[in-house]
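[agent] plan:
  1. take the single chain provided in the ticket
  2. run structure prediction with default settings
  3. attach structure tokens to the ticket
  4. add a short note for the reviewer (M.T.)
[agent] executing step 1
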Amino acid sequence: MTTQARIGYGTLFKSGNGASPEVFSTLAEVTAITPPAMARDTVDATHEESPGAWREFIAGLKDGGEVSLELNFVPGGSAALALTAELDLDGSSASKNRQVVFPDGSYFSFAGILTAFEPDAPIDDKMSASVTFKVSGKPTLVQA
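[agent] step 2 finished; step 3 output follows
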């Protein structure tokens, strides 16, 4: 069987504007995207009569994790301006609908809060920035 693996080139990160209908804008100059890192907690439910003295666990709460981006940092560019403005948002306005859109049209959809914007200006390489969003609620993978 031939592989269906693909490279990530063409994957986009988009943020919604909250309007109805919602319009999503692509963040410029993104060089790498790590989609939601989902996880589930476990809760120790071991008791005095657990069979064979083995620990027992039950499923706990789920966490959508974080989404991280790397991008080319352009100090006066649209991405830098949008991200610094977004850090000024408080309360419920800080959470926005986001999408990680893959080359085949499939996408992760989630609500996310910008938690970190870290520009870097090395002396001997391009300027870049690391960006992190905390996922709030359940991320959804929509197939193309």
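[agent] step 4 note for reviewer: The beta strands are 12-16, 24-26, 30-34, 39-44, 57-63, 66-72, 95-101, 107-120, 128-142.
[agent] ticket updated
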